[in-house]
Amino acid sequence: MNIALDMMGGDFAPDEAVRGVARFLTAGQENVHLTVVGDQDQLNPLLTELAVPSAHVTVVHAPQVIGMHEHPTKALKEKTQSSIAVGFQLLAGRKIDAFISAGNTGAMLVGAHYFLKTIKGVIRPAISTLIPKNNGGTGLLLDVGLNADCKPEQLSQFAILGSLYARHISGIENPRVGLINIGEEEGKGNLLAQSAYPLLKANPFIHFIGNIEGRDILLDRADVMVCEGFTGNIILKLAESIYEITRQKEIRHEYFERFNFENYGGTPLLGVSEPVIIGHGISQAPAFANMISLAVKMISSDLLGKMKSRFEGLG
Amino acid sequence: MNIALDMMGGDFAPDEAVRGVARFLTAGQENVHLTVVGDQDQLNPLLTELAVPSAHVTVVHAPQVIGMHEHPTKALKEKTQSSIAVGFQLLAGRKIDAFISAGNTGAMLVGAHYFLKTIKGVIRPAISTLIPKNNGGTGLLLDVGLNADCKPEQLSQFAILGSLYARHISGIENPRVGLINIGEEEGKGNLLAQSAYPLLKANPFIHFIGNIEGRDILLDRADVMVCEGFTGNIILKLAESIYEITRQKEIRHEYFERFNFENYGGTPLLGVSEPVIIGHGISQAPAFANMISLAVKMISSDLLGKMKSRFEGLG
């Protein structure tokens, strides 16, 4: 398999991206080839310096960079030779099997929309995040920001996408799906949650356990937690801030270490036709290495094929 | 002033309610009279046992109790001699100046709606909570669950109610108001946030500082944070769960102690014509004492009068 990385994206590019590649390859992945996309004049010396085995890596030159604060659509349109645009061109042309970037999130989302297809039957893709639970496990939360307003049908689709991810990537046989809500019983919540509940209950492809409240998010109640992207994004960023605050206050505990989102190495864009992983802007080497490992899992488990079959069956 | 307490509400009633009354009176509040509402056969021995000074306390007998899990509307209708119904009757008849209960939250909300008026000009009341900030202060978050779906105008009204509360109760001269959102710039967010932003910006009665994201909620960014009750409730319960988890894991730190919601002693129902404070079901003596102190502040600052004048000016 051939996995491409945007080497110019993120606050610590390209150094930490190259370190991440080196770190991943040190673990010895014989059947993985990495395509590193970026400015070759910066990348080649770094690859040499870190003694990255050239047999496992191909440099694809992309002379332009989309900055973290550029307007996504405008930047993608104007910078056709940027690492993000080149990466998506490779993915759309099936030259690579997955694309990873810690660069401008908006540009990644616009790029996926522009260069890739949405899986047939999926209304809109979603982005997810892993939330650490108090018992050591994790739960998948989606959407975390791509769809600020949602129809009830979308929440039901997120549940399917999330369940397939939990099963094939996290290895949970029969993942429990919870609807994020502000009450336990059916009928509670805002209009969206009230309408989504019966759809989730009737959805034959998921194991729906009912509503879960804010207090349940960090507990081992559900493996997949669905909500619209507004609430999901607030939850994600609040959880990230808890990690930041505990670090600043030097509150050291294994539990809070698990809120270090670098451990999870980026979030896959679920619902598009090819594997795309979006990293945090502050990604460093471990995050890049973890994102490559996640891409390997997505490809080797044929997660996308499974999503396509599932939605084809629904179409 | 005369403040009434529902002595039968909450998981530790009536014992902890009586202890809370004793605790409050020990601090010596000469001008405060307390009306304790509940089963006199249970209350009188407890009041005697704890040597609560009878000159400061009047027992009003209410032989019925609304359970924590009873259906609010049904229970209020059938149990006209319950402590919650009797308390609201006293408040509606101006026999008391404020009413406090840690009982069935739904019944308190229905009771307020049934027995009291909404302040003229206010679309719907809201409930708020104090959120501890990383620098030692607190921010007021509203709505936290009463209005699962909101119109943009409601968010603008929450900003006014919250600002008056922050000024007159928390003592913040010119409270900064933030709109909880999923992006920094105007135009970001879901349809509600997009529509609320210009209303908040144009609102002459508040000091609007723009959007605040999930990562800002625990930081010293805004003194008043507005959102619809769905998101607010998720934030509140997530924050409460962090406190619970740190206790279970025995992670002791002054910072997390501040997430003990008992410190804040209940949440006022903002937008109704009389002071009503709703306590957490798990309230113990310190929470009851703090709720009485909060009621004292609300009455002595004439918060309700100030809210009424502000909205009268708008009507």
Number of helices of chain A: 11
Highest-level CATH class of the largest domain in chain A: Alpha Beta
Q: What shape does the CA trace of chain A take?
A: globular
Uncertain stretches of 5 or more adjacent residues of chain A: none
Q: Which architecture of the largest domain in chain A would the CATH scheme give at its second level?
A: 3-Layer(aba) Sandwich
Describe it.
The structure is a homodimer of 315-residue chains. With 315 residues, chain A is of the alpha/beta class. Chain A folds into two domains: 1-120 and 271-302, Isopropylmalate Dehydrogenase; 123-262, Isopropylmalate Dehydrogenase, CATH 3.40.718. Helices cover 42% and strands 17% of the residues of chain A. Chain A has an eleven-stranded mixed β-sheet, sandwiched between helices. In chain A, strand 7 (176-180), helix 7 (191-202) and strand 8 (207-212) form a beta-alpha-beta unit. Chain A starts with a strand and ends with a helix.
